[in-house]
């Protein structure tokens, strides 16, 4: 008997059912499985037209339900599950997909379309296996499958239909009926797994578990605490991107703008650099060094102490770990460049958000004086350098996570398109000893690279100047597109992807790194807030990126949601598409 050993394999693991369906709970409880129920917040709103077959829709919805819970739990429940189970049941008849009816008339429409006919019930199931890595990031491994059961309804008279609808039973059930209760009276035959119709294909599930789950012991309740680096990066970045992180700064949002400005000002005045090279200065000495008033400097120092950025012992100051690790300009994970960009570019732009929303146009002219327009313009050397410093900060913080997201051992050469200062390329070279990486970026960007000396230079990283929309791309087995696509208008996205597909041979890879929006576009906030400052591009979900890349011949191989600002997806080229008719809008 396969069931018992399978269920007992899960003993000691934190198993979570990402479903509010009482039937699923009952089926799995009766089988002896011990689990917690955390209903998914994923809204079943995927575009059905995008799926070739009904079961693909059910499987994708099940995946999204389970992934949403798997990703939410470490933050909201402070524990990482071992296994999350999601499911979605749909009824399919005459090419239509029927879900739960929205009202009685909808139930009538559904039931009358089933009357006297055979239909299919599909349940898509996703099992997400969560592996917490040493750095406490979580790796998600997905197993999915579906089960089909055929059901034939008797001819239903109007009276029967309305009597059944008025019983209230149809409302929370796919297709508007419950085969396990009154709805059983409408059914002439069932071919296949009965429990699949009720909402969960138990037999198929156990078979999958049997082959997919290895019986390694794991603590029942792993409490997820971020290690300090991940935590500080996250907090600081959320902080900068305007999210309510009440643990870090109390009494938000009233203190929020003041906190940000204190951070920006301290960073701009190089306070953290000064206290790194000369710890133990008092307010008067600091004031003298940064050429500022004594009173103002003292207020700023005290504010920074209250924010946990500085420490003070008997009126002398030194950097707290947070400042040492992230805020001094030469820290390995320095946010200095990014803070400067936020202060001098993002802040003025966002203070014109109201008119940006009203007019739907860039507010640069309004937000900046002539002098600042020049300083922040991407066509000026200073503006370019400023932007490069900001991108360099982000690449340093996210680089390792992206570079180690996938097994890339089959690739020998990579090309980071728009790779800017090479910060990401160096991470890839360090993480993959067999990989050479070419950074391809505009001549004016490559020229300025002398300002960014890598900590560990590596002769497997080289720079080639060119325009990825116009020039021939360097040959590589793997193309990297990190934070590029979201910023481009659709036509440029397609030009770039076509060029990559043309440069690739079958089996070549494409690694995409972006913020992936939740499928229902309810988060993450950092992606949706970033969209407010984008005039041309577009934020997309993982499914949208998959479909976009698929239209150029790339198929999704792996997805990684990293919780370190950027997510990543690895694609493989199946065949080369040069025909623009293949391109989806
Ligand atoms: C055909 C049929 C369906 N159902 C129920 O229909 C819901 C489908 O909806 P779902 O979207 O898959 O699930 P949900 O109930 O919204 O829960 P969740 O997993 O949180 O989305 C599930 O409940 C199933 O049992 C029955 O109880 N009996 C039947 O004969």
TrEMBL record:
Its cofactor is a divalent metal cation. GO terms for biological process: methylation. Keywords: Hydrolase, Methyltransferase, S-adenosyl-L-methionine, Transferase. It comes from the Eukaryota. Residues 261-329 form the O-methyltransferase dimerisation domain. InterPro entries: COMT-like, COMT_C, COMT_dimerisation, ITPase-like_fam, Maf-like, SAM-dependent_MTases_sf, WH-like_DNA-bd_sf. Residues 350-554 form the O-methyltransferase C-terminal domain. CDD domains: AdoMet_MTases, Maf. GO terms for molecular function: nucleoside triphosphate diphosphatase activity; O-methyltransferase activity; protein dimerization activity. Homodimer. HAMAP family: Maf. This is Acetylserotonin O-methyltransferase-like. It comes from Neolamprologus brichardi.
């Amino acid at each position: 008997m396969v069931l018992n050993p399978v269920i007992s394999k899960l003993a000691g693991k934190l198993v979570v059912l990402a479903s509010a369906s009482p039937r699923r709970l009952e089926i799995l409880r009766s089988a002896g499985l011990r689990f917690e129920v955390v209903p998914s917040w994923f809204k079943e709103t995927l575009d059905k037209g995008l799926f070739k077959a009904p079961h693909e829709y059910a499987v994708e919805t099940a995946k999204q339900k389970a992934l949403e819970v798997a990703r939410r739990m470490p933050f909201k429940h402070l524990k990482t599950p071992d296994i999350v189970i999601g499911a979605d049941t749909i009824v399919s008849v005459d090419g239509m997909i029927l879900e739960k009816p929205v009202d009685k008339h909808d139930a009538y429409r559904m039931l009358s379309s089933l009357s006297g006919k055979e239909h299919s019930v599909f349940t898509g199931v996703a099992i997400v296996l969560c592996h917490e890595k040493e750095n406490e990031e979580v790796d998600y491994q997905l197993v999915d499958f579906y089960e089909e059961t055929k059901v034939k309804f008797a001819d239903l008279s109007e009276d029967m239909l309305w009597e059944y609808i008025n019983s209230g039973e149809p409302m929370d059930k796919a297709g508007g009926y419950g085969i396990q209760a009154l709805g059983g009276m409408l059914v002439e035959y069932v071919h296949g797994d009965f429990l699949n119709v009720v909402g969960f294909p138990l037999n198929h599930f156990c078979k999958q578990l049997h082959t997919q789950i290895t019986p390694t012991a794991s603590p029942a309740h792993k409490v997820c605490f971020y290690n300090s680096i991940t935590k500080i990066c996250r907090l600081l970045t959320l902080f900068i991107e305007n999210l309510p992180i009440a643990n870090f700064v109390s009494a938000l949002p009233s203190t929020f703008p003041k906190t940000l400005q204190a951070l920006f000002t301290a960073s701009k005045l190089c306070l953290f650099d000064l206290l790194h090279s000369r710890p133990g200065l008092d307010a008067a000495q600091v004031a003298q060094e940064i050429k500022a008033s004594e009173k103002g400097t003292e207020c700023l120092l005290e504010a920074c102490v209250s924010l946990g950025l500085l420490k003070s012992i008997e009126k002398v100051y030194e950097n707290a770990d947070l400042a040492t690790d992230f805020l001094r300009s030469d820290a390995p994970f320095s946010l200095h460049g990014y803070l400067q960009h936020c202060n001098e570019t993002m802040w003025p732009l966002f203070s014109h958000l109201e008119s940006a929303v009203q007019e739907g146009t860039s507010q640069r002219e309004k937000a900046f004086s002539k002098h600042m327009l020049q300083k922040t313009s991407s066509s000026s050397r200073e503006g370019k350098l400023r932007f490069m410093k900001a991108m360099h900060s982000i690449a340093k913080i996210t680089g390792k996570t992206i570079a180690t997201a996938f097994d890339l051992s089959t690739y020998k050469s990579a090309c980071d398109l728009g790779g800017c200062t090479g910060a990401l390329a160096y991470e890839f070279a360090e993480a993959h000893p067999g990989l050479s990486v070419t950074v391809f970026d505009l001549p004016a960007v490559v020229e300025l690279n002398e300002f960014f000396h890598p900590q560990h230079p590596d002769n497997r990283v080289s720079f080639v100047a060119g325009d990825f929309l116009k020039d021939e791309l360097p040959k590589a087995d793997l193309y990297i597109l990190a934070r590029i696509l979201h910023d481009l208008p659709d036509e440029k996205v397609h030009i770039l992807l076509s060029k990559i597909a043309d440069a690739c041979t079958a089996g070549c890879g494409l690694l995409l790194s972006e913020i992936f929006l939740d499928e229902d576009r309810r988060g993450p906030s950092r992606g949706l807030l970033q969209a407010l400052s984008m005039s041309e591009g577009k934020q997309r979900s993982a499914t949208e990126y998959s479909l976009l890349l698929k239209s150029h011949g790339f198929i999704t191989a792996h997805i990684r949601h990293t919780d370190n600002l950027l997510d990543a997806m690895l694609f493989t080229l199946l065949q080369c598409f040069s025909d623009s008719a293949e391109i989806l809008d």
